[in-house]
């Protein structure tokens, strides 16, 4: 039987995060290494979940509230660049 080559991955996390994660994983019979192996294999095989990078609705609502406040509730003219958007916020 041929063994596949493996690589070591090092990650730095706060100690309390590691301990709390370890406790939760142990409840399910997993080590941190096993869990990371499962997650990385899933990402490698299937990619990230469809809505992985989308903010929660409360974040979107906060952004909209801030935009309304900055524009005194008037519609933004928009633009095709960051500079045009920022300029429309100042108008």
UniProtKB/TrEMBL annotation:
It comes from the Bacteria. InterPro entries: Arc_rbn_hlx_hlx, RelB/DinJ. GO terms for biological process: regulation of DNA-templated transcription. Residues 71-80 have a biased composition (Polar residues). Residues 71-91 are annotated as: Disordered. This is DNA-damage-inducible protein J. It comes from Levilactobacillus parabrevis ATCC 53295.
């Amino acid at each position: 039987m041929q063994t596949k080559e493996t690589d070591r991955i090092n990650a730095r996390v706060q100690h309390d995060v590691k301990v709390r994660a370890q406790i939760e994983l142990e409840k399910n019979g997993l080590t941190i290494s096993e869990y990371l192996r499962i997650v990385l294999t899933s990402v490698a095989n299937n990619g990230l979940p469809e809505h992985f990078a989308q903010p929660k609705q409360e974040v979107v609502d906060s952004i909209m509230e801030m935009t309304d406040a900055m524009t005194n509730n008037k519609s933004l003219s928009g633009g095709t660049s960051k500079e045009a958007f920022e300029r429309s916020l100042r108008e």
